[in-house]
Amino acid sequence: MTKPNQHATNMLTFDIEEWFHANYDSIAAPDRSKGSNFRAHMDTLLRICRETDCKATFFVLGCIGEDYPDVVKAIAREGHDVASHGYAHELAYKQTIGEFRDDVKKSVDILENLTGTKVLGYRAPSWSIVEDNLHYLEVLEEMGMIYDASIFPVKTFLYGIPTAPTEIHKPLVNGREINLYEVPMSVMKLGGKNIGYSGGFYFRFFPRFLIENAIRSANRRGHSSIVYLHPREIDAYEQKLNLPFKENFIHYYSVGRTQNKLEHILRSFNFTSISEHLKSKYKLDI
Q: Which pTM value belongs to this model?
């Protein structure tokens, strides 16, 4: 497949979780007896990756590995990264560092047993590595991980470090540069502030031409953009949580148009996994 810009490579990521995994305050317990379309979503995402010749990093919850081991094996079999999203989608900043360590290790053990390959990276549920628990990254370093992709350089009611570097870097933690690459979420400047554009709500909210222009602008400057989505975001008919108006808008706006937008963007730009990008850019032997 020939794409317009063969010289710049962006990163494609998916947070692999069920429709009921969310971290808003005071939401009603979901009725999981209704089932889900998770398998169909995963079949679709893997098909889109094949058809657009893109590799991706799939940040998988440990509990997904327990419930859908065949899906995790299929991700690895098709040449994508299987990375950790924690075990049960709990906010990292609400865990003690010991609970965080146990949570990540539990997920990593499950995923490595399924794929037979080392888990190289981690993304916290709901971007929940923030200033107060930045030192939790040392746990990932101790576990021998290569990268973290948990920091969003914005500020919202749920997450974000607005002053964080916006390019891949090795973060300073407790006065030292740790041996771990931080791969922050892509942002653009709007009204003098950082704002996301290429994943989740931002991907669904902004028109395709704006996202494409932002990716193209980043690529012209020699930078890569990161796309991230959840399986539920490609299906307007999936089960839904009962959420207050603001959270419902953030969680479900324009889910019916996401799949077509994703396919078009993946056909327009080069995308690869985070580990492949790091290997290429930093000559890592991983």
A: 0.96
